[in-house]
Amino acid sequence: MNFKLNKIFRITIQIRLLFIFSFAIVSSLHIAAQKIISKTNINYILRVDTSDRSGYDVEIHISDAPKIFHLAMATHNEYDDRYWRYVENFRVHPEGKNNYVREDSALWKIISAVKNVVIKYRIHLPASNEIQRPVWKPFLSLTGGMVGDIHSFMYLTELPQTPSHITFQLPAGWQIATGLETTNKPNTFYAPNAKVLMDCPVLVGKFYTWNFSIKEVQHKIVYWPLSNATSFDTLLLVNNIKKIVQETVKLFDTIPYRNYTFLLQDGAYAALEHSSSVTIGLPSATFEKEKADMNNEIAHEYFHAWNLVSLHPAEYSDVYYGPQEKAAGLWWSEGLSMFYADLLLRRANLPADDSTRIIHLEKLIESYFSNPGNANISPEKASLESNEQPGGLGDYYPSVHLQGELLGTMLDFIIRDATNNKRSIDDVMRKMFKDFSGSKGFYSADIERTVKDICNCDVHSFFENYVYHANEINFNNYLKLIGKKIEVTWAAANENGKPMPDLNIYPWIKRGETIVRIG
């Protein structure tokens, strides 16, 4: 069966302008840290006052504190918003008993003469665009907001494994939703270590809540609406999310979290995955006409709880405050999550973006050919630059999401053909999760070996040609395994006989400069 590709796709890519700041290495003895970890106790207090929504106050209470220790604001590998820029009025109590110095952009050194130390500071929220608000960034309004995680808290760099309690002092009537563990106090939560604390955003305010259980694990859905929210079928939304969770758990037959919370916000865009929660922008005004897109985004971000958060590239640290860490395996983390977002929706009988998997594949291949960066930059190299500023790959801007989804699809064809349809990419994903999740992490070579183990076939040339190096994918080599092939045709992009503008062009400003560049 032939299907023709006769359109040139225009791809609009959201550019994330990221900054690498100077990084001071803190030296400490691991053995000494282990001796004091059981003694040191950390408690956080985050205070919100709606009479002043310009920011919020944070306190860190440390008992049995080391004589010398460091506090740092962690770096996120995807969206490094550098909230150390918004730390104000940093001080250490009791005054006169402690000395401190800011050693680096995100790092403070404290020298204390007492055992019990209290650090206080304020996060002054930057001006935001209320129309286009990124869902992962903190904000405050009269009816709620987003706080917590790397945007709010500092951690002890010498003692990242120390547990902590976090108390929220909020306006009357406000609720709290987060992936942090609950305690017997409704406004106090528990984090077993700094990694968990830095990875748990907190939605506060007045919102709607639904709960369900899968394999005896509690899942919560919360939705924070705007004051002028458009009504939509919330029961449908909840049922769709539950079906996505059921299909994902069925695939892995294991759950990598103790509890999970879907943090949905009206008036925001995009999404960001976490180990026990996900933040998702869900505009009420457009939900009804964009249900398929929303299903896809929810499935993609939720799948990351397995593939990217638990099963992550080996280059990523648990918690880290230096320059963003680069990883060569994002093509798998992002691309295969895209692959499964579409597939799991179909397994759950939920609306997807395209009517069939073949039509979906046709559109992916159209997009692949319409961006020359996809064939001229290897997925590993594209992964290393995917969270950098524009220009790192010259005039090319490949998509690791697209590259990875197509490579996963071709590998699925190879595995099914080699095993007479008895094995599939599902088996690879499960084995990757079993062998490399947790602190170990993976490299692309681990994926190659896992595929080889599953299909008992040689896929080295595939990885050499299309993962480690840059070559245009010969799709017909793999489509023929399922009895199909492609024909690619090109046509001028025009409308009513007139050339269409190239919407891929965008302006950007390099950090530290004022010059506007064109990408």
Explain how this protein is built.
By secondary structure, the protein is of the alpha+beta class. The chain has 13 helices and 28 strands. The strands form 8 sheets. A 7-stranded mixed β-sheet has the order 5-8-3-2-13-16-15. The longest helix has 19 residues, at 234-252.
Radius of gyration: 24 Å
Strand order of the largest sheet: 5-8-3-2-13-16-15
Largest sheet: 7 strands, mixed
pLDDT < 50 stretches: 1-37
Which percent range fits the helix content?
A: 25-40%
Secondary-structure-based class equals alpha+beta
What's the number of extended β-strand segments? 28
Walk me through the topology:
Layout (H helix, E strand, L loop, with lengths): L1 E4 L24 H8 L3 E7 L7 E9 L4 E5 L14 E7 L4 E7 L2 E6 L4 E8 L8 E2 L4 E2 L3 E5 L6 E2 L7 E6 L5 E4 L2 E2 L5 E4 L2 H5 L2 E5 L2 E7 L2 E8 L9 H19 L6 E7 L2 E2 L1 E3 L3 E5 L9 H13 L26 H18 L9 H14 L2 H4 L2 H7 L14 H19 L6 H12 L7 H12 L4 H9 L6 H5 L5 E4 L5 E2 L2 E2 L7 E3 L6 E3 L1
Parallel strand pairs: 1-24, 2-13, 9-21, 19-20, 20-23
Antiparallel strand pairs: 2-3, 3-8, 4-7, 4-12, 5-8, 6-7, 10-11, 11-17, 13-16, 14-17, 15-16, 18-19, 22-23, 25-26, 27-28
Helix pairs in contact: 3-4, 4-5, 5-9, 6-9, 10-11, 11-12
